[in-house]
Structure to design on (421 residues):
């Protein structure tokens, strides 16, 4: 609480006299006017040279209750990297709601073929697949013969957003309407060359044997979507394993397809985790696949299926317009991988004010709630200082000075803009 707020608390309208009320109103107006002058003067103070010397191309700033306390290059647009996930999370909360759960549909025909129609659930993992199959068993289905995988709710113009690369890295996986385990496999290649699953909840699937045979000894989490056909291969193999574990009879080919109108919906699975749960892990682990699944889902929510990058960008543009940040943000994809994404320090600080109800979802580090972002030549931080002030640092330069800058920023903020006890 600042001095003006202290005075307001002490000046109660205990006297009901109109004249006295008028005097108090005039006095309060003067106090707030002078307080505003003081804050404006403080904001115009020359920043320490040591802070600015760490920035060759970038900006930083600190705000309190939506008011900028101090900044450097606050309106210049920079590549933000993964701090963009704060915007994606905020848009998802606004458009989908904190309790939203992704769904996956299960339908059957008269030949006991199972159609799995995805809606982009990014958390369709081994544990969920086991739960789904147990539920299907409890419904008394006689058998599962063919398994037809339907990801047609997504129709992406390009296989991957700008910024993603064709690599085995887990953060480069492709997005889609139906996939399991983040389009990755986690395997361990033993000293004798044998292959095992590196996680207890996932069995050793045939795909793991073929991929693991080409890898060196050790534990590997591999992006299988570099060969798109493997996405359905992994998904089908995991569901077939869960069927066998649940002792549901039947066998048949696993293939991609579109669910026919004649198929009967027997189960609509809701994810075990809410959007709030998902965002907490998204911000903690900075999962690019999850971020873009959310990004694409926002486009599908606003414009209908199938999800496309164009719809997602249009929906995000609408969100940015609703936030009145058109000049501060430009989004190509949702993970922050694309160098074409643009965000200003002022825009990031405005996002943090809107994100404050969800602040506790940000990772905690040295008393701060902070999201980091890193690309080649991009180093960023965004979050909340211990006293609650918002801060943002975006550097687009070879030197990663964000930690040194953050120390100086905190020192300057504490000494120059202390909060009254």
């Amino acid at each position: 609480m600042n001095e003006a707020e202290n005075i307001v608390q002490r000046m109660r309208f205990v006297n009901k006299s109109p004249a006295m009320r008028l005097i108090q109103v005039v006095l309060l107006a003067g106090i707030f006017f002078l307080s505003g002058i003081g804050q404006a003067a403080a904001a115009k103070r020359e920043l320490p040279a040591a802070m600015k010397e760490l920035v060759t191309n970038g900006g930083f700033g600190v705000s309190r209750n939506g008011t900028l306390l101090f900044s450097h290059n606050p309106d210049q647009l920079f590549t933000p990297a993964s701090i963009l996930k704060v915007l994606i999370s905020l848009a998802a909360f606004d458009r989908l709601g904190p309790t939203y759960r992704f769904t996956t549909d299960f339908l059957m025909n008269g030949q006991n073929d199972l159609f799995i129609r995805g809606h982009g659930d990014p958390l369709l993992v081994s544990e969920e697949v086991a739960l789904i199959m147990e539920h299907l068993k409890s419904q008394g289905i006689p058998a599962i013969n063919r398994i037809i995988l339907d990801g047609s709710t997504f129709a992406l113009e390009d296989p991957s957003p700008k910024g993603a690369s064709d690599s085995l890295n887990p953060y480069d996986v492709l997005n889609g309407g139906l996939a399991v385990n983040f389009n990755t496999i986690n395997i361990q290649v033993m000293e004798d060359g044998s292959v095992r699953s590196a996680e207890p909840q996932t069995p050793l699937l045939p795909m793991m044997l073929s991929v693991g045979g080409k890898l060196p000894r050790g534990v590997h989490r591999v992006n299988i979507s570099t060969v798109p056909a493997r996405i359905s291969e992994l998904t089908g193999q995991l569901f077939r394993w869960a069927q066998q574990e649940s002792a549901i009879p039947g066998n048949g080919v696993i293939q991609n397809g579109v669910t026919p109108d004649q198929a009967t919906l027997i189960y609509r699975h809701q994810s075990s985790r809410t959007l709030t749960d998902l965002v907490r892990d998204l911000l903690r682990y900075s999962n690019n696949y999850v971020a873009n699944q959310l990004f694409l889902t926002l486009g599908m929510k606003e414009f209908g299926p199938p999800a496309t990058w164009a719809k997602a960008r249009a929906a995000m543009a609408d969100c940015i317009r609703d936030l009145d940040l058109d000049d501060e943000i430009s989004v190509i994809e949702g993970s922050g991988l694309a160098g074409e994404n643009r965000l200003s320090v002022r825009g990031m600080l405005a996002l943090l004010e809107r994100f404050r109800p969800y602040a506790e979802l940000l990772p905690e580090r040295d008393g701060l709630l902070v999201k980091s972002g890193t690309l080649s030549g991009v180093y960023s931080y965004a979050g909340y200082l211990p006293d609650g002030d918002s801060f943002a640092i975006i550097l687009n330069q070879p030197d990663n000075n964000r930690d040194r800058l953050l120390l100086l920023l905190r020192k300057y903020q504490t000494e120059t803009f202390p909060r009254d006890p």
